[in-house]
Specification:
By secondary structure, the chain is α/β, with parallel strands linked by helices. The chain folds into 2 domains: 10-21 and 253-380, Lyase, Ornithine Decarboxylase, Chain A, domain 1; 27-247, TIM Barrel (Alpha-Beta Barrel), CATH 3.20.20.10. It has 12 helices and 19 strands. Strands 2, 3, 4, 5, 6, 7, 8, 9 and 10 form a 9-stranded parallel sheet that branches. Strands 1, 11, 14, 15, 16, 17, 18 and 19 form an 8-stranded mixed sheet that branches. Helix 1 crosses helix 3, helix 6 (120-129) packs parallel to helix 7 (152-164) and helix 7 packs parallel to helix 8 (185-203). The radius of gyration is 24 Å and the shape is elongated. The protein binds pyridoxal-5'-phosphate.
Length: 381
C-alpha cells in the first residue's frame, strides 16, 4: 500500500479497502436536515427511510447519527438491510417495506422488526404465522400508487383477519405517487382515500396507534393532516428538489471524491479511453481518477460530466471505464497524483452536484446516489 503523504487532502486519505474513492457524508448537515423535517412536519414522529444503504449514503453511519439525535424509527426495504442495522447496534423500531417470505418471520421476530402488510394474500399468510412469531405490523393501504397494499375495495373482506392480528398492529400507512407534482389534486385524492380506509378500519374496532402516508414531498407540502408520523428519505439527504425543501433549509450531505492515480501532460492528438472518443485538441493535462462505472459512476456521463478541483470544474473526457475515468485540465493546473477531485459536489448550484448530474442523465437524484455501491468507502466528512 503506498504511504499516506501529508500533502494529501484530508478527505483523500486511503480508506480501509485500499482504494481512494469515498463518499464523504456530512453527518452534521444530516442532523440539521432531520431537525428541519421535524419543523416541517410540525412535530410528527420521523421515520427515516434508510433503505438501499441510506440511498447510497451508508446506512449504518446515517442511522447511528440519526438515532443519536432521536427519532421514531427507521424504514428499510429488505430483511438484510434491517439486520445490518441491528448488527450495528441500532435499537430503534425498524419497519421493513418489502414483501416478506414466511420462512423469514422467525428472524424478523427475533430482531424485533416491524413488517408491512403488502396484500390481502400476505395478510392471510401473516394471520397464521404472526401469533407464533410476533412482529409489529403496518397495514398498507393502496391509495393510488398501485403497487402494494390492500385496496379499499377489498378492505371489507380483510377485516376479520385484521381483527385477529390486532395485538400486533402498530398502524396503517399509504404512499404518495405524485406529492412533488405542483398540481395537488391526485395527492388530495390519495389522502381522502386514506382517510376513508382509516375510517373503515376504526369503525370495525381496529385501533391504529401510528398513521403515516407522507414521504418527504408529502411532508414538505403539508399533506399530513391526522397523521402521527412521516416517512422521510430524500429530504434527510438534502436532495429534494422542491422549493419547500430550499425554504426549509435542507442541503445535500454527500460528496464523492476520487483520488488521482495518474496526472500526465500530453500533446495534442492524444486519445483517451475505449473507442478513442476524446482526442486532445491541444497539449493538456490528463488526470486519471480511481472511479468507474463498477463503482456506480454512470458510464453515460462520459464526455458530459464535470469534476471539481480547488473551486473550478473540468470535463470528464473519453469513455468512463469500469474502474477509472479521465478528466482533462489545462496544462497550467497542477493536479498531482495523490490529490483528489470531486465527482459529486454538495453545492446544489455546481455542475457536478447530484441534482445537476441527475439532470444530465435524465434521471432523479435518488438514482445517482443509490447507484454508488459497496466499492465506495463511506466516510463522515
Ligand atoms: C413506502 C415508502 N415510503 C417513504 C419513502 C421515502 O420517500 P422519499 O425519499 O421521497 O422521502 C419511500 C421511498 O421510496 C417509500 O418507498
Amino acid at each position: 500500500m503506498p504511504p499516506v503523504s501529508d500533502t494529501m487532502a484530508p478527505s483523500a486519505r486511503l480508506p480501509q479497502n485500499g482504494r481512494a474513492l469515498s463518499a464523504n457524508v456530512d453527518l452534521g448537515r444530516l442532523v440539521r436536515n432531520l431537525n428541519a423535517m421535524r419543523q416541517a412536519s410540525k412535530g410528527l414522529g420521523i421515520l427515516a427511510v434508510v433503505k438501499a444503504n441510506a440511498y447510497g449514503h451508508g446506512a449504518v453511519q446515517v442511522a447511528r447519527a440519526l438515532e443519536a439525535s432521536g427519532l421514531a424509527g427507521f424504514c428499510v426495504a429488505t430483511l438484510p438491510e434491517a439486520l445490518e442495522l441491528r448488527q450495528a447496534g441500532i435499537s430503534s423500531p425498524i419497519l421493513v417495506f418489502g414483501s416478506f417470505r414466511p420462512e423469514s418471520l422467525p428472524v424478523a421476530a427475533a430482531h424485533g422488526l416491524d413488517l408491512t402488510v403488502v396484500s390481502a394474500e400476505h395478510l392471510l399468510e401473516l394471520s397464521e404465522l404472526v401469533p407464533r412469531h410476533p412482529v409489529g405490523l403496518h397495514l398498507k393501504l393502496d391509495t393510488g400508487m398501485g403497487r402494494s397494499g390492500l385496496l379499499l375495495s377489498e378492505l371489507g373482506t380483510c377485516l376479520d383477519a385484521i381483527r385477529r392480528l390486532q395485538p400486533w398492529i402498530r398502524g396503517a400507512m399509504g404512499h404518495f405517487a405524485a406529492a412533488e407534482d405542483p398540481d395537488p389534486r391526485f395527492s388530495r385524492l390519495q389522502r381522502s382515500r386514506f382517510l376513508d380506509g382509516l375510517a373503515q378500519l376504526r369503525d370495525a374496532g381496529i385501533s391504529l396507534p401510528q398513521v403515516h402516508h407522507a414521504n418527504s414531498a408529502g411532508c414538505l407540502r403539508g399533506f399530513t393532516e391526522g397523521d402521527t408520523h412521516v416517512r422521510c428519505g430524500i429530504a434527510l439527504y438534502g436532495l429534494s428538489e422542491l422549493e419547500e425543501a430550499r425554504q426549509a433549509g435542507l442541503s445535500p450531505i454527500l460528496e464523492l471524491r476520487a483520488e488521482v492515480f495518474r496526472s500526465q501532460l500530453v500533446p495534442a492528438g492524444t486519445t483517451v479511453g475505449y473507442g478513442c472518443t476524446y482526442v486532445a485538441p491541444q497539449p493538456v493535462r490528463l488526470v486519471t481518477l480511481d472511479c468507474g462505472y463498477a463503482d456506480g459512476y454512470p458510464r453515460a456521463l462520459a464526455n458530459r460530466a464535470q469534476a471539481g478541483y480547488q473551486g473550478a470544474t473540468y470535463p470528464v473526457v473519453g469513455q468512463v471505464s469500469m474502474d477509472s475515468l479521465t478528466v482533462v485540465v489545462p496544462e497550467s493546473v497542477d493536479v498531482r497524483t495523490g490529490k483528489s477531485m470531486v465527482l459529486l459536489s454538495r453545492e446544489p448550484a455546481d455542475p457536478h452536484s447530484v441534482a445537476n448530474t441527475a439532470r444530465l442523465l435524465g434521471t432523479i437524484p435518488y438514482e445517482v446516489t443509490c447507484s454508488l455501491n459497496r466499492r465506495v468507502t463511506r466516510d463522515p466528512a
